[in-house]
Specification:
Elements: H1 2-12, E1 23-28, H2 34-43, H3 50-59, E2 68-73, H4 78-87, E3 96-99, H5 106-116, H6 121-128, H7 131-140, E4 165-168, H8 175-192, H9 194-198, H10 204-217, H11 221-236, H12 244-250, H13 262-265, H14 292-299, E5 308-311, E6 317-320, H15 323-335
Antiparallel strand pairs: 1-2, 3-4, 5-6
Length: 342
């Protein structure tokens, strides 16, 4: 008799299906008794017996099971299910996941936020123009300064948001909450290089501006360090940076959409580094939200005499010391069918 009871008890507290990985959503309402919770679990086929569940809770003096929404599996032992319910809900069925790819600009970020939350793109742009909000950020983050309030900057926080995949409580998350999470993560990265940034001849804003260009111009870490070297060399010689990515940004045209016209390339704009008036100058602000790799490349650039670089349609980068070398490289790439054309 005793052996039979023990066998039944052991069976009752074992997993309903050891091989099942299916997650089953279970809602435990506020004020539910142990008996009621046992019935809910039995209805979901997560336990063998609601009565044994009640007995188990009595034997082990379990009286603090918490209400909430859970995801449980049939492969869980009764003991494991009880432990989860004691710890409380960690599963939020309304939680959303948003991915911001590295190197995207603020227009793309606004679009992603609008598609994944109950905010509009206009909500994003309005917050970026909110002076009291911007002032609060300048106060809270060491790397954000008055530079972002320059009236020529399109989007005040361009370059300052760390792009990655994030979880938010639900679609009602505010733009401020989203920005805070992305700014906090950017802060964690910049904190690692604070000594180098503060010892640089450039401000954090300028570092992020350079990094945003490097992000769009290079692919590998080696290329990025080389590109950063070219930019520094040109700045030191009071040459224009001549970066196409800044011309596209100045015209608010996505690089993947089309070629720019001659008029657009020659647009006099504080972002467009292809014009003579921008000789020896950085763009007024970042043109993308750079990755840590690009920030690192700007802080630890390759040492070189290169003044030019060009990439082929496979995004392989070629460096040159003179314009003649650069021109020869371009001609060779065209002959080999490696030159990128829309």
């Amino acid at each position: 008799m005793v052996i039979g009871v023990c066998t039944f008890y052991n069976y009752s507290i074992s997993p309903v299906d050891k091989k099942s990985n299916e997650e089953i959503e279970v809602v435990i309402p506020n004020g539910a008794s142990t008996t009621e919770i046992g019935s809910i679990l039995k209805e979901k086929d997560l336990i063998h017996s609601k009565n044994i569940f009640r007995v188990y809770c009595y034997i082990y003096k379990v009286n603090d099971l918490k209400a909430g929404t859970y995801k449980l599996k049939k492969s869980m032992k009764l003991e494991s299910i009880v432990e989860v319910l004691k710890e409380g809900n960690t599963y939020n069925p309304e939680e959303i996941k948003i991915t911001f790819n590295e190197g995207i600009n603020m227009r793309k970020i606004a679009s992603i936020i609008a598609k994944n939350t109950n905010n509009t793109e206009e909500d994003v742009y309005n917050l970026l123009k909110d002076e009291s909000y911007i002032d609060s950020l300048i106060k809270d983050y060491w790397f954000i300064t008055e530079e972002i309030k320059n009236s020529n900057i399109y989007y005040s926080l361009e370059g300052y948001l760390n792009c990655d995949t994030y979880n938010f409580k639900n679609k009602d998350v505010t733009v401020k909450e989203i920005f805070k999470k992305l700014l906090d993560e950017k802060g964690k990265i910049l904190d690692k290089y604070k000594k180098e940034i503060e010892g640089s001849n450039y401000t954090p804003h300028q570092i992020l501006t350079l990094a945003s260009m490097v992000e769009l111009e290079g692919v590998t870490d080696s290329d990025r360090a080389g590109i950063a070297s070219v930019f520094y060399n040109r700045l030191n010689r009071k040459m224009s940076l001549g970066s196409d990515v800044t011309s596209y940004y100045a015209n608010k045209v996505e690089m993947s959409s089309r070629d720019l016209t001659t008029t657009e390339y020659n647009l006099e704009n504080p972002y467009n580094t292809r014009t003579a008036s921008m000789a020896g100058k950085l763009p007024v602000g970042p043109v993308s939200n750079p990755s840590e790799a690009s920030i690192k490349a700007v802080l630890f650039p390759q040492k070189s005499d290169y003044l030019y670089f060009v990439s082929d349609k496979n995004r392989k980068v070629y460096f040159s010391k003179t314009y003649a070398e650069q021109d020869a490289t371009i001609k060779k790439l065209k002959q080999e069918g490696k030159w990128f054309e829309w």
